[in-house]
């Protein structure tokens, strides 16, 4: 008997909920809670009340509310698909009720963009002592990219030295400007300073100032920009042989121009301002006027290509492996009514949850994805809509 409580009912959650609902062999009972009850009810209607057994309104910023909800539902696992701000209150509630925990993004304080694991790693001993597990970052990046790295290190190399994670959205949603996941989190991530790991230290770059033109499978050449992404922090810790680790994401000219203008006029700021006697955060206001990422999928054309280039040593010789997935926006829309960015995050969240509930990935403590055997996760990616491919190639990066 496995019972899961999913918190959040946005773009990513929609995919996870629908996928879990189709897999009674992993998820006997599913419960859904979020800030806006009507969104949970709509998903329950779509999936059926026999699969989504109960829906609830919850403010997950408030650990006591989450504790009460967990005590009512008594889940084996809480899947947190709300926003990074809610990670710690939900982890606190899991600790208080001795319930396993999973998320897809590291904790973020509201007033400062940090993108680091320090707060959640600090729960390691508490979770261990309580006999419960937290799986951090079970999306695509972080998530699948961590598992790709572990899989490649396990099966293709004696030692890995250079890691480049590449994330390309080659799709077109037809909107002038929209983000593919929560706009607030997305814009906080993109506007921070770039950072990468080299020879034992972090090096910083101005935001989106380093570019490579990379050729993506089934998409073509796209301008790719170096930025910091949270999985770099855990990967350099858990693979200390890495001499360099970087993350690249593609952006089109129109997107960058919009972003520059919005930044230039202060609309991406997270500093509260006084507006007609009320404190508002410009970025939160911007989120409210941008398209909801969950609404982009109808008519979205093209594919994503996300993968990892790894260069290392096997039997004394250097080689490079690229491991990647292509995901088609229209196919995701046809399957679950979502675009590929929600899909590529929602499916790995389902797989992480399934492996925890089956006991395949289960040990008390707080863990990142690369700390488990990658093989069972990789098998399930192929079965549940995110097939992957491996090629041996030359490194495409400028020396
Ligand atoms: P959305 O904004 O679409 O959904 C977030 C959901 O959380 C909404 O339903 C929202 O409620 C709910 N929520 C927000 N605050 C609270 C609260 N205080 N209490 C209860 N519920 C709340 O975001 P996405 O689905 O795009 O993203 C979900 C998560 O996935 C984010 O943390 C994001 O960073 C992460 N992500 C991870 C990726 C990866 O590859 N690892 C990639 C993409 C996203 P309401 O509907 O009322 O607003």
TrEMBL record:
Sorted alphabetically, which SUPFAM superfamilies does this protein's record hold? Answer: NAD(P)-binding Rossmann-fold domains (SSF51735)
Q: Which residues form the Saccharopine dehydrogenase-like C-terminal domain?
A: 139-386
- Please list the residue ranges annotated as the Saccharopine dehydrogenase NADP binding domain: 4-135
Entries under InterPro entries matching the protein: NAD(P)-bd_dom_sf (IPR036291), Sacchrp_dh-like_C (IPR032095), Sacchrp_dh_NADP-bd (IPR005097)
Identify this protein by name: Saccharopine dehydrogenase family protein
Pfam assignment, any one = Sacchrp_dh_C
Q: Which organism is it from?
A: Pseudobowmanella zhangzhouensis
């Amino acid at each position: 008997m496995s019972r899961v409580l999913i918190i959040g009912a946005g773009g990513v959650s929609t995919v996870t909920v629908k996928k879990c609902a189709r897999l009674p062999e992993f998820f006997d009972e599913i419960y859904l809670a979020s800030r806006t009850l009507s969104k949970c009810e709509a998903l329950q209607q779509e999936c059926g009340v026999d699969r989504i057994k109960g829906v609830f309104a919850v403010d997950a910023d408030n650990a006591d509310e989450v504790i009460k909800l967990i005590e009512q539902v008594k889940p084996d696992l809480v899947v947190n698909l709300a926003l990074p701000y809610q990670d710690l209150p939900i982890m606190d509630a899991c600790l208080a009720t001795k319930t396993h925990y999973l998320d897809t993004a590291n904790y973020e304080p509201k007033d400062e963009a940090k993108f680091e694991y320090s707060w959640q790693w600090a729960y390691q001993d508490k979770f261990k002592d309580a006999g419960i597990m937290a799986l951090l970052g079970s999306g695509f990046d972080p998530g699948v990219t961590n598992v790709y790295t572990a899989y490649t290190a396990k099966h293709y190399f004696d030692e890995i030295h250079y890691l480049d994670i590449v994330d390309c959205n080659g799709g077109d949603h037809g909107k002038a400007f929209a983000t593919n996941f929560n706009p607030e989190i997305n814009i906080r991530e993109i506007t921070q300073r770039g950072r990468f790991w080299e020879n034992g230290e972090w090096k910083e770059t101005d935001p989106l100032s380093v570019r490579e033109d990379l050729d993506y499978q089934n998409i073509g050449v796209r301008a790719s920009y170096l930025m910091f992404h949270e999985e770099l922090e855990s990967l350099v810790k858990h693979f200390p042989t890495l001499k360099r680790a970087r993350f690249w994401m593609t952006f089109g000219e129109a997107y960058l121009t919009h972003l520059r203008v919005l930044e230039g006029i202060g609309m991406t700021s997270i500093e509260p301002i006084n507006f007609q006697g009320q404190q508002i955060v410009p970025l939160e206001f911007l989120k409210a006027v941008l398209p909801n990422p969950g609404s982009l999928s109808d008519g979205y054309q093209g594919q994503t290509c996300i993968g990892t280039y790894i260069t290392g040593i096997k039997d004394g010789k250097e080689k490079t492996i690229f491991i990647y997935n292509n995901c088609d926006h229209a196919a995701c829309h046809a399957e679950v009514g979502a675009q590929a960015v929600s899909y590529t995050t929602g499916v790995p969240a389902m797989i992480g949850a399934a492996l925890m509930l089956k006991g395949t990935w289960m040990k008390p403590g707080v863990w990142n994805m690369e700390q488990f055997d990658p093989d069972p996760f990789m098998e399930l990616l192929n079965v549940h809509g995110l097939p992957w491919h491996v090629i041996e190639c030359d490194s495409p990066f400028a020396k």
